[in-house]
Amino acid sequence: MILTNCPACAAPLPPLAAKQCSRCKTRYCGSACQAQHWKEGGHDKLCKKIRKGGGAEQYHADNKYAEAVAVAVEKCAEDTKGQTCYICMEAVHSRTGEGLVRECACHTTEGFVHVSCLAEQAKILVAEAEENNLGHEVLGERCRRWDTCSLCEQRYYGVVRCALGWACWKTYVDRPETDQVRGLAMSSLGNGLGAAEHHEDALSVREAELSMLRRLETSEESMLAVQANLAGTYYALGRVEDAILIERDVYAGRLKLSGEEGVSTLISANNYATSLASLTRFEEAKSLLRKTIPVARRVFGESDDLTLAMKKNYARSLYENSCATLGDLHEAVNTLVETERTARRVLGISHPDALSIEEALRQSRAVLRVRELTCELEASPLGSE
Q1: Are residues 59 and 158 in the same domain?
Q2: Which of 27, 43, 99, 288 could bond 20 through an S-S bridge, CB–CB 3.0 to 4.6 Å?
Q3: Cβ atoms of residues 272 and 243 within 8 Å
């Protein structure tokens, strides 16, 4: 369940034994809160509406989806002005009345779309895979349409990804906990909330997902995936010490299960290195990335977003280190010049990853200039007196 707090007192709900309204399935931490919410919290007026909306979880997901779409459309309004959806070819959706969005790596006049059109497209593709028993691998690939643009093949970001996360969750929320697609939908929602920087909400989703998988005694592979997402949320909330403990174990687990060339192994290596650098453990971060960047290049290529992220983090472990040599700083700048050029070409100039690399390049150049000036002063006659 994503609704993890009592609506009356806001206390965390037990995962299984929560008291719930028999009509609409709204959950409470106890009978007293349920009674209080009915008498004073407005539940007497909302209960029928929630029940008609499919129950508490479905009603909540539908409302949050509508809110997220409105935010995404407003955020993209300037960029999408005068454009039409590449799926339905309309500017305003004929059924929902929503406007357009675009937060991917599409350039010029490509990639304008309605969130509901993307959701319908993804829903059809997933249903087709399930109906024809195309297997877990194909099903997982089809589920990528819930967060990845079919034109540029890059993931959506920001508030658009958040809207798609809610779209995915509201589509599959009523399925059993053991259903594979429902599990992927929960992960999609957590990722979307994180992309929009709703990290506290994302944490609730991550913790609920981990608790669910523990109850189901799921595979080690699935547990590692959820733990990795939880660590990422800890990191985003500034809880780096909590994050790195999980990331270390996740990387070791991924290495054992998938080998050094596994996609999940390389992702976890980059996450672990990011936290190491944030805790100023630069030598460890550098060592890990020197080992894994060549593997990422071989597996994904130079233009992949993970390869770009690894190279940015490697440069960061050089120029943020107070013990870096002049050679280290030159290496950092040269690495980021190349990486920034590739990111702008592949992701576009407004993509957050491209902007992050651009900012790292600016910082590395500033650090290098200061070091070069210091060396010049030390070498001059005045500096030696």
Answers
A1: yes
A2: 27
A3: no
